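Entry 14. Ran structure prediction on the chain below.
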Amino acid sequence: MTDDDPTLAGLADQPLDDLDAGTLDLVRSLYDALDPVPPDLVSRIGFSLALDEVFDEVAGMTRVPPDALATRSEPAAGTRTETLTFSADRLTAMVTVHRLPGGGLRLDGWLAPSEPCLVRLRLPGGADREALADAQGRFSFDGLPEGFGQLSFHPGSDAGTEADDTTVVTPLFQL
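Output, structure tokens:
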């Protein structure tokens, strides 16, 4: 059978029948078994697309392997530490996510160049957090839930005000 076969063209013009529906059900079950849709996919897509503001610059993300970091001791058993670097023309941010012994997560971050900067952490469900980077560019968030987050950096901003400078936003990342 070829694409220009009149039998194929005639079948293509017909409505779906029980054989077609059964075949499509088999294909769906094959995909469900081999490559299931994550249960939170729709909410993750909505979260990543629901930007509250129009951002001028998106930072690129780089995972830093643990052996590339200068550490003085090994992390305690059962702890997870991950370091990410976000680079943009305007600034670079390095963040480390630590699992806290009592539960929850802590995010520590450093900005370069260090300057006054309002840092916003967007979390699913609208539980956003804000922190100010200090004179050395350091900021942190405690007691975070596991899940996804997104940082935005507002250089030249302090508590209650925002500068008109370029805002930088990170891609969605796993806390």
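DSSP finds three helices and eleven strands in the chain. Will compare against last week's run tomorrow.
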